[in-house]
Amino acid sequence: MGSAPLSPSNPRLRRLRRLVRDPRFRRDQGVMVVEGPRALTTVIGAGAEIEEVYVAVDGDEVGREVFPVDVPTGEPPPGFDRVERAVLDSISDSETPQGLLALARPRLVDLEAIDSRSPVVVIDGVQDPGNVGAIVRVAAAMGVDVVVTTPGTADPLGPRAVRASAGTMALVGLCMRSRPEAVLETLLAGGRRVLVADTAGEDLSEVVVDQPWALVVGSEGHGVGEHFRGDDVTPVSIPMAAGVESLNVAVTAGIVLYSLRVGTAGPPD
């Protein structure tokens, strides 16, 4: 027979519930909330420290997809805690809970400690956590080492952002809630070319990038803040067909990052 599920009043479940809902508490605790086997598999593969894992009573097989082990029927894998499905579903913020919630330690970095040679993405004022997670996912896919967020940007450690990143939040270093003026000053001092996604910017295909770079993306409605405008940065735009004014911010980030990666935004052959 399996071990008894945790009581709904268990202090650890009360903490988990608060971590799901409270961005400031997540930051103070230094953990991200991971939901589902796919995201957790990626987080584990990234080498992140796994603090706690909770599986629904009828969801032990979900847990075994992540940690395949030989355990008695009805028992969760070692290190997993059983929780009644109704209780775990009530803690999740997803419309379709997956029966698995985990807490993991992200790779947090200080602004001053970012390697001056590493590509960086700055997310400025993007309030939708799904977009934040999608930007991180494409940044990780394109080899970006560090993602910086500014105040007003959705918390990247929350369950919605981590879900949208498919767990790749653990593959990048995170520098969160950094003052925009400090971010720009640090990037420029490190010798980077700072590119800003802007529909009124230069055609991306005509911009020569032959030095370390950083890409700044802002919200679809307002773009980047005033600190990322001016002579110190290079606004870049994606040429589009007539009738299309803009793209989703994560799509924009993906196109620009791919161009930078393959060199179509660099010097001609």
Query: CATH fold name of the largest domain, please?
Result: Alpha/beta knot
Number of strands: 11
Q: How far apart, in Å, are the first and last alpha carbons?
A: 67 Å
CATH architecture of the largest domain: 3-Layer(aba) Sandwich
* Count of discrete structural domains: 2
Largest sheet: 7 strands, parallel
Taken in chain order, the helices and strands follow as HHEHEHEHEEEHEHEHEEEH
Spell out the CATH superfamily of the largest domain.
Answer: SPOUT methyltransferase, trefoil knot domain
Strand order of the largest sheet: 5-8-7-6-10-9-11
Question: What class, by secondary structure content?
Answer: alpha/beta
- Number of helix segments? 9
Description:
The chain has two domains: 11-105, 60s Ribosomal Protein L30, Chain: A; 108-262, Alpha/beta knot (3-Layer(aba) Sandwich). Helices cover 31% and strands 21% of the residues. The chain contains nine helices and eleven strands. Strand 6, helix 6 (129-141) and strand 7 form a beta-alpha-beta unit. Helix 3 packs parallel to helix 4 (60-66) and helix 6 (129-141) packs parallel to helix 9 (249-262). The model has no long low-confidence stretch (mean pLDDT 91).
